[in-house]
Queue: 4 jobs
Job 1
Amino acid sequence: MELLLDTAAAFAANPLRSSTALAHQSVAIYMTKPSTRTRLSSESAIAHLGGTPIFIRGDELQLGRGESIADTARIISQYCKALIIRTYDQADVDELGAHATIPVINALTDFDHPTQLLADWLTIREQFGKDISGRKFVYLGDGNNMSHAWLIMGAIMGAHVVAATPTGKWAPDPHVIEVAHTIARQSGGRVEIIHDPHAAAKDASVLYTDVWMSMGDSQDEREEKVVALSPFAVTEDLMALTQSDSVFMHCLPAHRGEEVEATVIDGTKSIVWREAYHRRTTIQSLVYHLVRGDLKGSSH
Ligand code: CP
Ligand code: NVA
């Protein structure tokens, strides 16, 4: 992780420092869900490395006409140096990964959003430095893919990481919580699941949130979900409970007036634009190291 973040910081300082690393090579980006940041940052990251991004929409492969995931993985592996994929089912990404002979990067599933967290932690590091002892990093809202990624990455980074979510069906997956605890025991981190947004926000260094309705969520549940998530909206009142040097973060897209007050996301404590900027530097770092084979044996 240190290598990925350090190289991303170097790409931030000089985006073209490895501008021939992918010369004459291509990277496939396959997405069955919409994307603004992940798609554009990935395409530009690959261009900065001298490569060609090949963007493929969900309905453009023979996969949609019955070709197997395994065969698709074998074929893409023959043409491209890596595959970036955004789709619904985590099992599809795992299956592609199992049959591909090139690195497969999870660019969001219903279950996880790991590349977002690389950008988030580079931004956190810029803000607070490497010494995060005594600091609390809080996610508020839906116990969804973002909450899972937040807990796992926070645990890897040895942070005191919190998910403040409703109980019941919008709480994080219990297995993810267990894995995060296991990682934190090794890293010296601490994982907390809280259902009281005020207790979560108290003395926090970061308040982080995500949309209430994720891609693929059923609109039939919207009303019930909004009621359950409303207490977890990041308001000026919640921000007032945090440390004086605290910041607000959001993976974006944002819905002002729902999960965050406009005065918070557009206010002085918000670092969401720098966070979004680092989507490119971190994907550039990830692709660079994966294609070089520097990360063999790593997971996620
Ligand atoms: N944060 C994020 O993944 O944004 P996109 O959905 O626009 O890619
Ligand atoms: N939870 C959101 C994240 C968007 C970046 C979704 O899956 O739609």
Note: The chain is about 45% helix and 15% strand.
Job 2
Amino acid sequence: MVSASGQNNRIVSGMRPTGRLHLGNYHGALKNWVKLQHEYDCFFFVADWHALTTHYEDTGDVASRAWDMIIDWLAAGVNPGSATLFIQSRVPEHAELHLLLSMITPLSWLERVPTYKDQQEKLKERDLSTYGFLGYPLLQSADILMYKPGLVPVGEDQVAHVEITREIARRFNHSFGREPEFESRAETALRKTGKKNARLFREMRKRWQEQGDEESLEVARAMLSSQQNLTKGDRERLFGYLEGGGREILVEPEALLTETPKMPGLDGQKMSKSYGNTIGLREPLESVEQKIRTMPTDPARVRRSDPGTPEKCPLWEFHKIYSDKDTQEWAHKGCTTAGIGCLECKGPVIEAVSNELRPIQSRAQEYEEDPDAVRSIIQEGCETARSRARETLDEVRQIMGLQYR
Ligand code: TRP
Ligand code: SF4
């Protein structure tokens, strides 16, 4: 089904405040954000409440981890002129939306989110039988639905969360979008678009509802989107009327799964702080070089004259990310024929990683030296996000009968 999201170019994504970021974070998500900010209207935020859902006992430094992470976002090229950057807890509207959505969320939906059981298994040393942890996917739904994005860039592990977000939006619209006299209100709204447009709308609606013709749906949607004089409420009514449901108050987003290379750590496992196998974005380049030089390689290469198998070597994974075809061929051939030594093989990787990190580090340093600039970027982002969030909440409160005058 085509939804309003199809023609909406807003994106929302959050990251837990883990402190300084490493190359795994960079290649896994951040680099993608930098790219997306040019193509979409992006809202990127620090998911600090999310951190508390699993780490409520050692909250000590959430704020400093958040600032450190934000500096790395900026250093990596996330541009506050293109994207809105904010901190979740500083837009408390997220909590209110979470609460209101909780009223219509069946417990069973939350219990069957795969990460619920998985994480409880994985983080056995923590007691995750809490209300906050169970509700965490719903908090994420609130984060997303608040801004009515069309797309949510996420990794594989988060797709289920976008899916539950869609279900919540659908349930919400179904529960509350059917106001009394919906049809006659929609017809009144339609008249405001003028005779010609109203006729076009009726014809396209008929074709969509009777024959499922998606092109007609798109045409009618485009017409509605271009109407400057419709109120928001009327537009939502007409979108709902077009599709055959009630008002579309919350928009169903789609997951944007991006192909990201798997960034291995220094030992070949996934790069992760908990494995101690990371290269930090702000790590001094001498230390980066040292780490790569001492990385384990294919154990079959005991002596320089022993040939190896790149596929058994963690460094080869780095070549796959950092090297061009020629260099990869050189390394592969050199390895299997014992034509090159491991240290020689590591040279181009050290060079490429250093070249990648150099501009990031120099920007990071500028922000480290000017924390006020970072704060004011976030301050501004929080204000922008908040005013967007208030608009959504006003609608949600109203439709749930909470408008006090
Ligand atoms: N749950 C995500 C994670 O742990 C972070 C997150 C919170 C998020 N809210 C979000 C991601 C909204 C995308 C959209 O990585
Ligand atoms: Fe790994 Fe390169 Fe050594 Fe082969 S030559 S084992 S690919 S570091």
Note: The first helix runs from residue 23 to 39.
Job 3
Amino acid sequence: MTAPRPLVAGNWKMNGLKAALAELAAIRDAAAAGGAGRAETAICPPFTLVAAAVEACKGSPLAIGAQDCHPRVSGAHTGDVSAEMLRDAGASYVIVGHSERRADHGETNDIVRAKAGAALAAGLAAIVCVGETKGEREAGQLTAVVGGQVDGSLDKGFDPARIVVAYEPVWAIGTGLTPTAADVAEVHAFIRARLLALYGAKGEGVRILYGGSVKPSNAAELMAVKNVDGALVGGASLKCADFMGIAAVYR
Ligand code: 13P
């Protein structure tokens, strides 16, 4: 199986008022001009901007995603948004199981798996996040934690063609710290082996993104690592120059 097409996705987190659509338009235009080369690009703004972002990016190569969804299609769940609603708004991706949601909202692997299943059922692709804390890494629990998250957050019955896994070490998020290329290679190879065990040869086609303090200055080194099929970018995705500086690795 040939290597999957890389994906460079931006997670805007809880950032972005309507005025930020100007930055989104700049990213859209840069992507349309070939700035991401062979990579696919996506931006996941807050819920409030999803529909407007979809509208702004119609007919462009920049895909739009969201940052969470509820496991159910509809019902009495005040404040929640379903995957079907996101699909209806025109999103094509949804991030599930981000460490900030696992920490802030107590999301377990079971909840994340249910959300990923809901995303796939609604016709979205799911970006499923995994990653260890500093304490877990230092205690030698990296593979137990990440392996448990991969196995627990994915289901054998999922269509691997619409699953993306993002490895985001919690201690690297927003800190400017990154693992060494050798460390990233080791964890991504470990995740790939788990995907092969779950999905057979189709596990080869699942994109495994690296996330955590990715910047234009370190993107080339991180993206060159075997089994790194793109990036999930936080802070640097808020500015067109930074985001496209990362995606430019694939030109
Ligand atoms: P930063 O790129 O800001 O470290 O955030 C990474 C992240 O959490 C993306 O989901």
Note: The chain has a mean pLDDT of 98.
Job 4
Amino acid sequence: MSAARRIGDAWRRAGQRIDRLDARLLLEHVCGCSHADLIAHPEREMTPAQLARFDELLARREAGEPLAYLVGSAFFHGLEFAVSPAVLIPRPDTEVLVEQALARARRLTSPRLLDLGTGSGIVAIVLARLCPSAVLTAVDVSAPALAVARANAARHDAPVRFLEGDWYAPLGDERFDLIVSNPPYVAAGDPHLRQNGLPFEPRDALTDGLAGGDGLACIRIIIAGAHRHLSPGGELLIEHGYDQAVQVRELLDAAGFSDVGSWRDGAAIERVSGGRLS
Ligand code: GLN
């Protein structure tokens, strides 16, 4: 009877159904223990409530639900952020957006930065922390996403002004030195949306949902609105899909941007494109 409750046995059994590391992280989450506890005290007994909770999360992970939603957090740029199914799970793809934004922000004194479609707030919060002179504004159309973002900003003591609305809508005529965005850009018909954990993530954060579209509808809106919201010499940086860099550069060129370029993510894929408006 008690063998069934031992934490080490639970880990071993779960490791036959899901990835062993995921099993460990779920156990640590449910039992409030560390990796070292698990190794040092595999004989520790779980309470019936912990066992029931662990069984539930194990079944959900087995059914494909992302680990980040099950444990309620994920790491980005070395910081832990709360996540819920109201927001996308932070991805390493987005690190290059932060790097490029940071390099630009650090060249300016008290830059005004805008993050459009902030989701869990990771981009705005990391920029606020690493560039303390910057003044951050972050917009999202989703109130539940903004609640997650606000909690993350409080957790990391990051001064970010959060506004609810559709892209530039809540900003009036305000202008910024740098606009960054990780918008929805997956084409609605892309089979990627049905794979891995994506069906569990907010669809509106991944795709514009336009049947037969190219996934660039939001990027077009962001580029078009930049004229009214960038200060002279201000820059725009947008994350996009693995095969969209050429199209995004063309959109930026056509909109009158200069210094148009693309930057590669950790997987050597052109992941962010941007330019400057004079
Ligand atoms: N890079 C993400 C993916 O392909 C999509 C993120 C986004 O749409 N902004 O899973």
Note: The beta strands are 73-76, 79-82, 112-116, 135-140, 160-164, 176-181, 230-239, 258-264, 270-276.
